[in-house]
Inverse folding.
């Protein structure tokens, strides 16, 4: 069958000899957006930099990765004179629990209160084709002319239940520019653990009548979230019962701080203000600088291990010894700087 | 039983789905169609009217008067029906989300002719579930939509006894890819959801009458023997349902009544004259056997895959019906399949399959709660069908076999053998609307809309308040907005997320494109990301969904946002998502207005990603679109999705190469 177009890409499947492909390679070698400049824009609260920031952190070329290091430096606590002001929130739950509709209403609620919001929706990818259908955007209502809302869908990149590798860097960078960064992931059991490594507060979404969350909590399969959200409050009694059961289960586990909130994302919408308040209460209880410092150190260890493997860690004397190497570093040090420290030690030995 | 009827049967009702530009022009078309021997009307409304927007709404841009007639208020309906006696005419309206409103306008128009509403006969399509599943002209969320439907049924059964308040549509399910089993099962499940809803709103003893007023609108494909069996199976299931679930016993109430529009999905752009024989065969599927014969038939025109048909094209289709009904001997015999082993066997097969699938829908909580499940199943079936066409397993003459052809004389005129709607129609409609608003009694309208809001907020039947608003002179957009305010907005599931991972027996062609996607993605640093969007009000999302799924299957990251997007929304999404290419799908004929708008909105935001377009795009429009900045245009003759994907990857590669060279 004839191709629809005599494309340069089709004609030269192997190499860079054609002019078009040569140019494309030049594009690869050419400079990506400047991380320092993007960082400056974010520091100034300019959310219009967000698309370019995401394009940069997702870019796997060497040149782009160098710029990402500069970006992270530009929005690090040291550069900001303290932790980034944005509240980084993770929302996770099983498919069909009503996360997207919930997000839509949450964004609306925050915007009504004049808070700027960046949503990073992480979708599972097909491991067979490596492609993915990023469908959540379709269910989040937004005003295209609103400069205070940014929504980006990202493929998980084949990591089961996991976070797209670029999501952490993006979330921390955007926290310099917006009031709320919201990361949405799919799953129960592991997803909230992964997302917890990146965010300040974790909300797990469950639908009434599913029972899974209750069982997972009791069995200890699911980490206790900071906020538990029961959706579909419009179902009335079923939702209220689910809320009671979950609250009882949490009490029996001795977890008295986790708030359980019932919401309805369909008209009449309710519970959104309660949810926003619950997230704020949680944030206020945190020692944010200490928590983010610890999470950055953990991230740096994970990044080092991903790059250099078990062998790399052994060179440093094992994970615990490696962790101790970071304790002396400044609290506000950014992840690339911490990775650098580890690599420096490894190199020296 | 004699092999002859004592008396020749009366033919079915003959209609042509028609309407365009303005109420006045459509009225002239209706009158000329009736003069040619058409026996009923079938009104096609434009998309703003179907989705509840006035001509001056942002979303109406490019769509006014395109796929049907705009009807904004009682004055338009009066003009549309001018000189057509509504006490004898049987009018079918393809209207769903705004069905209650259009019926109200029709009632008021009849009053103007001195005709009581009790004398009216006709049909409002009014099947909202299939709008969520396949056609996309919904306006309100499922629960209040079902309430509106139930209100209309409860109202018409008492006040307009010869009205068919709902036409449960399996038609669009087949267009969306349904197999015969799915078509039967989903239509029946849909009917159950509707009837259960009405049962709560009418006295128990009226259920027989309600059941008797439910009619179906089915599709007939070119596999016409099986299609006939499908209708026999539906008749059996319907009777069973009436007796067992709703306690209906009157045989008159238990008969399956259906109208039909034969299949458009199988009509082809290449060698379009072949569509005539397809249409003939499909018509036979719904007329051959007397026991399951259609009550009303409308045939598409041979050139539907090319664009909007002209009056002559529609006349040709009407004449096909007339030759069968009046020249052939078909209507002289009783059922010709009685006792046929083949027919009985096919019916039994379909019944078994449909019953099993109905049980699955029931497990998903019925047709309303099961929309996601049914939608995903349809996307999957459609993908499977396209895969078989691509592989050549399913032969489509002129598409994947016997493609050698002489130039068709039918498409040699300057317009390419189709009708184009004058661009001025939209502004005329906007001006007329302004004039209407200025002249009417504004206080009466405000009072009527207040009453409508109160009815919507409460639990009473909404028809009275709707008719009052129609009389007062409210507009389609105002009626809908009042209900949107009360009920909220809604976005239906897209079905693509749930579709399975890869085409059964992934082909070498797909593998090759996957390789290319990997190579180009590596080169540009990120996986190729495509935004698939449907600008405007066109809800026919089947094509866009298949593109989205195939793009995923060849390894791209796909942002699919569903239907009904403004150019500004598409541009914002493309920017925020950082996509490498934007793919737009339009089937409503509004591409000349909307596509350049989208391109402009993208460039205004600094998004340089190339734009590709697919849909029912006449050949003559391809070059103007390219001049407007479109990188590639895919028309119905580009049936091979994998080839389209290969082309899109090439577009992305070229754009990135060129962009870097310029920098």
């Amino acid at each position: 069958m004839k191709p629809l177009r005599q494309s340069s890409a089709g004609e030269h499947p192997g190499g860079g000899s054609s002019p078009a492909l040569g140019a494309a390679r030049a594009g690869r070698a050419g400079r990506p957006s400047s991380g320092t400049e993007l960082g400056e824009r974010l520091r100034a609260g300019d959310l219009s930099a967000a698309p370019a920031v995401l394009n940069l952190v997702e870019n796997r070329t060497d040149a782009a990765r160098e710029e990402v290091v500069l970006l992270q430096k530009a929005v690090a606590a040291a550069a900001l004179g303290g932790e980034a002001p944005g509240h980084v929130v993770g929302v996770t739950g099983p498919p069909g629990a009503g996360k997207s509709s919930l997000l839509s209403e949450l964004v609306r609620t925050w915007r009504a209160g004049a808070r700027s919001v960046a949503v990073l929706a992480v979708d599972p990818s097909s491991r067979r084709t490596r492609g993915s259908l990023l469908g959540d955007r379709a269910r989040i209502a937004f005003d295209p002319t609103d400069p205070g809302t940014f929504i980006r869908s990202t493929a998980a990149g084949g990591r089961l239940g996991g976070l797209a590798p670029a999501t952490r860097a993006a979330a921390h960078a955007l926290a310099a520019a917006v009031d709320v960064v919201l990361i949405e992931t799919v799953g129960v059991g592991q997803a909230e653990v992964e997302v917890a490594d990146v965010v300040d507060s974790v909300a797990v979404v469950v639908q009434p009548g599913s029972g899974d969350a209750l069982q997972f909590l009791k069995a200890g399969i699911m980490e206790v979230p900071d906020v538990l959200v029961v959706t579909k409050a419009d179902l009335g009694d079923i939702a209220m019962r689910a809320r009671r059961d979950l609250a009882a289960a949490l009490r029996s586990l001795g977890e008295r701080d986790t708030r359980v909130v019932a919401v309805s994302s369909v008209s009449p919408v309710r519970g959104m203000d309660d949810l926003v308040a619950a997230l704020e209460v949680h944030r206020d209880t945190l020692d944010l600088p200490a928590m983010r410092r610890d999470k950055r150190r953990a991230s740096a260890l994970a990044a080092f291990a991903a790059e250099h493997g078990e062998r790399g860690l052994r060179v440093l004397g094992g994970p615990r010894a490696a962790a101790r190497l970071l304790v002396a570093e400044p609290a506000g040090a950014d992840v690339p700087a911490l990775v650098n420290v580890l690599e420096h030690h490894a190199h020296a030995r | 039983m004699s092999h002859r009827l004592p008396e020749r049967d009366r033919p079915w009702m003959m209609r042509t789905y028609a309407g365009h530009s303005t109420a006045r022009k459509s009225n002239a078309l209706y009158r000329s169609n009736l003069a040619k021997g058409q026996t009923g009307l079938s009104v096609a409304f434009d998309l703003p009217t179907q989705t509840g927007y006035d001509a001056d709404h942002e979303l109406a841009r490019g769509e006014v008067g395109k796929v049907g007639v705009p009807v904004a208020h009682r004055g338009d309906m009066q003009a549309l029906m001018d000189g057509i006696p509504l006490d004898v005419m049987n009018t079918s309206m393809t209207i769903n989300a705004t069905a209650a409103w259009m019926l109200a306008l029709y009632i008021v128009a009849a009053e103007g002719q001195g005709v009581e509403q009790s004398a009216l006969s006709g049909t409002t399509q009014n099947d909202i579930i299939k709008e969520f599943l396949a056609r996309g002209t919904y306006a309100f969320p499922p629960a209040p939509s079902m309430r509106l439907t139930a209100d209309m049924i409860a109202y018409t059964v008492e006040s307009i006894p010869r009205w068919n308040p709902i036409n449960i549509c399996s038609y669009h399910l087949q267009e969306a890819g349904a197999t015969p089993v799915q078509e039967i099962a989903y239509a029946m499940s849909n009917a159950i959801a509707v009837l259960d809803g009405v049962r709560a709103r009418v006295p128990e003893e009226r259920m027989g009458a309600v059941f008797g007023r439910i009619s179906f609108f089915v599709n007939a494909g070119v596999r016409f023997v099986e299609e006939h069996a499908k209708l026999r199976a539906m008749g059996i299931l319907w009777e069973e349902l009436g007796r067992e679930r709703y306690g209906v016993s009157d045989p008159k109430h238990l008969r399956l009544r259906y109208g039909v529009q034969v299949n458009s999905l199988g009509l082809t752009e290449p060698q379009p004259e072949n569509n005539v024989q397809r249409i003939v065969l499909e018509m036979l599927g719904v007329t051959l056997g007397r026991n399951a014969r259609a009550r009303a038939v409308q045939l598409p025109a041979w050139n539907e895959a090319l664009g909007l048909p002209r009056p002559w094209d529609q006349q040709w289709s009407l004449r096909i019906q007339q030759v069968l009904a009046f020249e052939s001997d078909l209507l002289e015999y009783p059922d010709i399949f009685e006792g046929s082993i083949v027919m009985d066997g096919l019916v039994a097969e379909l019944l078994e399959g449909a019953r099993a699938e109905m049980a699955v829908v029931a497990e998903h909580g019925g047709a309303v709660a099961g929309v996601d499940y049914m939608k995903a199943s349809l996307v999957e079936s459609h993908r499977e069908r396209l895969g078989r066409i691509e592989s050549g397993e399913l032969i489509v003459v002129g598409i994947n076999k016997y493609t050698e052809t002489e130039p068709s004389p039918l498409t040699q005129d300057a317009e390419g053998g189709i009708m184009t709607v004058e661009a001025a129609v939209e502004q005329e409609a906007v001006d007329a609307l302004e004039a209407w608003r200025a002249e009417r009694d504004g206080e009466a309208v405000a009072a009527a809309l207040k009453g409508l809001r109160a009815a919507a907020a409460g639990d009473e039947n909404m028809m009275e308040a709707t008719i009052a608003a129609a009389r007062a002179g409210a507009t389609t957009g105002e009626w809908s907005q009042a209900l949107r305010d009360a009920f909220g907005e809604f976005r239906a599931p897209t079905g693509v997320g749930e579709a399975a991972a890869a085409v059964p027996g992934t082909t070498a062609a797909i593998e090759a494109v996957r390789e290319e996607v990997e190579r180009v993605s590596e080169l540009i640093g990120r996986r190729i990301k495509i935004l698939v969007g449907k600008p405007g009000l066109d809800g026919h999302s089947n094509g866009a969904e298949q593109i989205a799924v195939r793009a995923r299957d060849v390894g791209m990251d796909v942002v699919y946002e569903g239907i009904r997007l403004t150019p500004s929304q598409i541009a914002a999404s493309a920017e925020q998502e950082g996509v490498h290419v934007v793919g737009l799908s339009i089937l409503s004929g509004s591409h000349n207005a909307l596509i350049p708008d989208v391109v402009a909105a993208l460039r205004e935001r600094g998004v340089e990603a190339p734009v590709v377009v697919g849909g029912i795009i006449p050949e003559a429009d391809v070059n103007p679109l390219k001049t407007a900045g479109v990188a590639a245009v895919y028309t119905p003759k580009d049936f091979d999705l994998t080839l389209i994907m290969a082309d899109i990857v090439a577009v992305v590669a070229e754009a990135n190469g060129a962009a870097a060279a310029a920098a």
